[in-house]
Amino acid sequence: MSSADKNLSVFSTNDLPDISNKKFAIVVAEWNDEITEKLFEGAYQTLLQYGALAQNIERGNVPGSFELTLGAHWYAQREDIDAVIAIGVVIQGETKHNDYINHAVAQGITNISIQNNKPVIFGVLTPNNMEQAIDRAGGVHGNKGDEAAMTAIKMVGLKDKIFVR
Ligand code: DLZ
């Protein structure tokens, strides 16, 4: 399915783990905040809906998506945090910046996830324009924040399944 056809808020919810004792951090880029606030809200509400406790969800803001990697790394280093969700929006085509930012953040988040041995989720929209961003921030294509939170939940569950006996 192409991403244009996918609704980001529709996912399989079979066999989800109990996350009532899991801690999550959500790192939010302030650039394009009219969109990132909606993504944050989607992620936050999805974690609550599937069993996370409000006191177990922390939020930290960073200025732009480029800083998501370091912000997420700081949270991921904390023993008590089980998963980190990085939220940002980089509009393609506005400046050359987007190539550098998108690649750096995607690579950075992959690296810190592996270094810290815990899920660090890429909740970053990379649309061609603002309309596509709106469509994926609670619009016709659902909410990327919902999908990022569900990914965090599933990865936390998989880690426990593999390592906790
Ligand atoms: C500079 C910049 C540009 C041009 N575009 C975006 C964007 O679309 N989305 C985003 O999250 N951040 C953008 N930034 C800011 C950078 O991520 C970073 O915060 C600055 O380059 C630091 O000076």
UniProtKB/TrEMBL annotation:
It comes from the Bacteria. Pathway: Cofactor biosynthesis; riboflavin biosynthesis; riboflavin from 2-hydroxy-3-oxobutyl phosphate and 5-amino-6-(D-ribitylamino)uracil: step 1/2. One of its GO terms (biological process) is riboflavin biosynthetic process. 5-amino-6-(D-ribitylamino)uracil binds at residues 31, 65-67, 89-91, 122. (2S)-2-hydroxy-3-oxobutyl phosphate binds at residues 94-95, 136. It catalyses: (2S)-2-hydroxy-3-oxobutyl phosphate + 5-amino-6-(D-ribitylamino)uracil = 6,7-dimethyl-8-(1-D-ribityl)lumazine + phosphate + 2 H2O + H(+). GO terms for cellular component: cytosol; riboflavin synthase complex. The active site is at 97 (proton donor). CDD domains: Lumazine_synthase-I. Its EC number is 2.5.1.78. GO terms for molecular function: 6,7-dimethyl-8-ribityllumazine synthase activity. Keywords: Riboflavin biosynthesis, Transferase. Belongs to the DMRL synthase family. HAMAP family: Lumazine_synth (MF_00178). Catalyzes the formation of 6,7-dimethyl-8-ribityllumazine by condensation of 5-amino-6-(D-ribitylamino)uracil with 3,4-dihydroxy-2-butanone 4-phosphate. This is the penultimate step in the biosynthesis of riboflavin. This is 6,7-dimethyl-8-ribityllumazine synthase. It comes from Dyadobacter luteus.
